[in-house]
Amino acid sequence: MNQTDAIIIGSGHNGLVTGCYLAKHGYKVLVLERDTTIGGAVRTETMFQSDENPHGFRMDVGSSVHIMIHQTGILEDLELTKYGLEYIDMDPIMSYPVPTGKGVIHFWKDVDRTLESISKVAPEDVENYKEFIDFWGKINKGVLKAFMTSPKAGSLFAEMTKAQIRDGSMFKKGEQAAGLQKILSSYGKVVDDAFESPYMKAAILWFAAQSGPLPDHSATGDFAGWQSMLHQSGAKHPKGGSGMLTQAMKNMIEAHGGEVRADQPVEKILIENGKAIGVRTESGEEFRANTIVSNAHVQTTMMKMVGREHLDDSMFTKVENINVGNGFGMVIRCAVEELPDYSAAPGDPHIHNGIQLLAPSVQYMNNAIGDYTKKLPPEKPAVLCMTFSKIDPEVAKDGKHTLFAWAQWHPYKLANGMHWDDIRMREAQKIYDVVTDYAPNMKDKLIDWYIQTPLDIERKHGLLRGNVMHVEMSFDQMFMFRPIPEMSNYETPVKQLYLASASCHPGGGVFGAAGHNAAQVILKNNKKSFFSFS
After folding, report:
1. Taking every annotated instance into account, which residue ranges of this chain make up the domain Amine oxidase (predicted)?
2. If one looks up domain 2-45+71-86+240-321+474-525 in CATH, what number appears?
3. Over the range 492-513, which residues count as b (16 or more CB within 10 Å of their CB) and which as e?
């Protein structure tokens, strides 16, 4: 019998974070990954090798930019630099090239340097941005604390209150009601109210939209407000590609006597008398452990790996009714001859250090959203462009470059009988055309590309309906409501079975908080000491 202390289903970064903490505290950990490459949606693969480019290109096939995990202390706690992880600073973190005319807004980690850049394109918003960062920065000190522990009713507001007692008043005297209204407002309104320049509005709105919900959704104001945290931790890119994070965690687990196995798809969680005792892979091999942790999607875990026979009807229905949404976006991973030279900022020496925000206006994005709500691909997609080969030659060693272009609002389920496999090339070209609109030099500079539609994302990563956040990040599915109230503490109705994925609080992105919090719960339940980084 294959016996171990803890089995982690899936090698996504949250599951590996859980595995690392358990290994650190003496557990013998076994990670089983369904794909042939570990890392889940934080993974880098070598593609497009040829006689001309024998090294090929290091292409991220999931998340690329690492922001939130640098605010958690997880990397330091697990000492991942010992296991091969090296980060490169992205500074400016992101840039907004003016869609017509000249000029670019650089958002640097340093606030003053950012304000100086804003002054050249949108001088009317210099003070507005300063006030915006100050307001949301105070709030997010408490929000981050709430993210790094199991959610409980009132925990968010409790942590925010503690933060204000510790660090000063949340709101100015007499502005409490207006301040609370911002928190409960939509990020579209928050951005519209905060800024005057159409360029600042478009830039901040497009970055906020990366969390998922549409700009008019209530209680999403902090998706824009999280901008304040960029000036705390900055953004970083792992040297060699995004997947170097998960490779370092694999190395850490193995150094502590554990094992990470690829090409081991789990078919079933083995349950006896209401208690998880192990797993069976598709090949029929069985593994046993006292602790089972699923890093897979909550619906895949509970509806397929556990199954209706081990859940009462009401619980099965609640899991089935979780709002997964109708897709999110799509991305093209391009090998290119050269970097974009943006018409707005010819020869700019900084623009390729970070993300490039290619969304001409708020109305432009609203038009794309309008197509999305009709279950149509956007006629003109908003694009987030990433050119990591500028700061990391490891990803393109033969004098060429990588260009990733993520675009949003692309519905998973399409209208009019359309199917993603039939239109993927056409929609990919639309995204590349946005890049060439901004940087005409990129015309005919494409060497090859790897296309990921919402359907491709589902197939590759098991992210149902192509939602890269697992389930919608709307307020009714956040904190103690995520994924459902009965499972918000990373525990399930099946004893000894835990959840650790982005399906859980606090949600998606390269964060690691769900994995960290799940490990806290497991270690507490098993009466082992757990020293948080607090």
Report:
1. 15-300
2. 3.50.50.60
3. bbbebbbbbbbbbbbbbbbbbb
